[in-house]
C-alpha cells in the first residue's frame, strides 16, 4: 500500500499504476545494505544515490568523497556478497573536465575534473571498471548524464530541491512562479556566443528511458559499457531563460554574478554511441522540457 510512502513515491506509484516497494536507508551504512540485499532477490541495481552540487563540492570536498565513494564501495560490497552482478550507474558529463573538443564523445579523456563532484564520479567509474575486469561475470553500464530538466507530463512528479536550488532550471521555474525574486547568472564572460555557460539539457523522461535501454543491455552480458545520455545540443543560460519565459508567459528577472568555481564554459554531448548500441535517442525538445517543467511548477508551487 502507499501508507508511509513519501508523497513523491506515492505519486510515482499512481503514474506507474503498480506498487513500489520502498526502503529508506543511508547508502554509507554497510550493515543496512547487507540486510536489504539479504531480504530481497535483486537481479540488477540502479545506483543514483549521491551528492551532486558542483559548487558545494568545491566547498565540502570531504563530504562529497565520503558519501559518493564510501557509499558506492558499501553498495558494491553488498552486491558482491549477495551475488548481484548487474549495475547501472549514474555518472556525469563532469568526468570529462574542461572539454578538449565538442561535442563530447565517450573517447574524450576523463579524469581532468574541475571539481570534487566530478572527481567522485570519475573515481566511481574507475572502481566499477576495475571490478568488471577482476570479475568477468559482472556487467555494468555507466551512464554519463548531461543536464536533466523537465518533469513528467502529468505534472504530478518533478524536481523538488530542498532549500536554494543548485541547478539552473528549478531556480528559473521558481523565479517564474514568484517564489524567488531573480536568477543569478554565474558569469557572462565565458567564451560562448552570449558569454553565459552552455550546457546540454535533456528531458528527464528521455533520461529514464535511457536507463531502461541500459537494463536491457545488461541482459546481453555486456561487461562494462559507457554511454553519454544527452541531446547533442548546447544551450546558453540566457537561451534557457528565454525558453522558460516562452513556456510560462512570464518575465524572468536575472542578475549577472561572479563565475562559480568548478564550472566549465561549454559542455554538450555526442550521443551517437547510445543510439547505435542501446537503440536509445533523446526525443523531447527544449520547448517540451520547459512546458513540462512549467506545468509541474505551476501545479506544485511549493513542491511536494
UniProtKB/TrEMBL annotation:
- Cofactor dependence: NAD(+)
Q: What is its EC number?
A: 5.1.3.2
UniProt keyword Ligase present: no
One cellular component term from this protein's GO annotations in UniProt: cytosol
- State one molecular function term (GO): UDP-glucose 4-epimerase activity
According to UniProt, the reaction catalysed is: UDP-alpha-D-glucose = UDP-alpha-D-galactose; UDP-N-acetyl-alpha-D-glucosamine = UDP-N-acetyl-alpha-D-galactosamine
* One protein family per Pfam: GDP_Man_Dehyd
Q: Keywords on this record?
A: Carbohydrate metabolism, Galactose metabolism, Isomerase, NAD
Provide the NAD(P)-binding domain boundaries. 17-292
UniProt GO BP: galactose catabolic process via UDP-galactose, Leloir pathway
Pathway, per UniProt?
Answer: Carbohydrate metabolism; galactose metabolism
Q: Which family does it belong to?
A: Belongs to the NAD(P)-dependent epimerase/dehydratase family.
Q: How does it assemble?
A: Homodimer.
Role: Catalyzes two distinct but analogous reactions: the reversible epimerization of UDP-glucose to UDP-galactose and the reversible epimerization of UDP-N-acetylglucosamine to UDP-N-acetylgalactosamine. The reaction with UDP-Gal plays a critical role in the Leloir pathway of galactose catabolism in which galactose is converted to the glycolytic intermediate glucose 6-phosphate. It contributes to the catabolism of dietary galactose and enables the endogenous biosynthesis of both UDP-Gal and UDP-GalNAc when exogenous sources are limited.
- Its name, as the record gives it, is UDP-glucose 4-epimerase
Per UniProt, what is the name of the gene that codes for the protein in this document?
Gale
Amino acid at each position: 500500500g502507499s501508507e508511509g510512502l513519501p508523497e513523491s513515491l506515492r505519486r510515482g506509484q499512481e503514474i506507474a499504476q503498480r506498487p513500489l516497494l520502498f526502503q529508506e536507508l543511508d547508502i554509507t551504512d554497510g550493515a543496512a545494505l547487507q540486510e536489504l540485499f539479504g531480504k530481497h532477490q535483486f537481479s540488477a541495481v540502479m545506483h543514483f544515490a549521491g551528492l551532486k552540487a558542483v559548487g558545494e563540492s568545491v566547498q565540502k570536498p570531504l563530504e562529497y568523497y565520503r558519501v559518493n565513494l564510501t557509499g558506492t564501495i558499501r553498495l558494491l560490497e553488498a552486491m558482491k556478497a549477495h551475488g548481484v552482478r548487474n549495475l547501472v550507474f549514474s555518472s556525469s558529463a563532469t568526468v570529462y573536465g574542461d572539454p578538449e573538443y565538442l561535442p563530447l564523445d565517450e573517447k574524450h579523456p576523463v579524469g581532468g575534473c574541475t571539481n570534487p563532484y566530478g572527481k567522485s564520479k570519475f573515481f566511481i567509474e574507475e572502481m566499477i571498471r576495475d571490478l568488471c575486469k577482476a570479475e568477468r561475470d559482472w556487467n555494468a553500464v555507466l551512464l554519463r548524464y548531461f543536464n536533466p530538466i523537465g518533469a513528467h507530463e502529468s505534472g504530478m512528479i518533478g524536481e523538488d530541491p530542498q532549500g536554494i536550488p543548485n541547478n539552473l532550471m528549478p531556480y528559473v521555474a521558481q523565479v517564474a512562479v514568484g517564489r524567488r525574486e531573480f536568477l543569478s547568472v554565474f558569469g557572462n564572460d565565458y567564451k560562448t556566443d552570449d558569454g553565459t555557460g552552455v550546457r546540454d539539457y535533456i528531458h528527464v523522461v528521455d533520461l529514464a528511458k535511457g536507463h531502461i535501454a541500459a537494463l536491457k543491455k545488461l541482459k546481453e552480458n555486456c561487461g562494462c559499457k559507457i554511454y553519454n545520455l544527452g541531446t547533442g545540443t548546447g544551450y546558453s543560460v540566457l537561451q534557457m531563460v528565454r525558453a522558460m519565459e516562452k513556456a510560462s508567459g512570464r518575465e524572468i528577472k536575472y542578475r549577472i554574478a561572479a563565475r562559480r568555481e568548478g564550472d566549465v564554459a561549454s559542455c554538450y554531448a555526442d550521443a551517437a554511441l547510445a543510439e547505435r548500441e542501446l537503440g536509445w535517442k533523446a526525443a523531447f525538445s527544449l520547448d517540451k522540457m520547459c512546458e513540462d517543467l512549467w506545468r509541474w511548477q505551476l501545479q506544485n508551487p511549493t513542491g511536494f
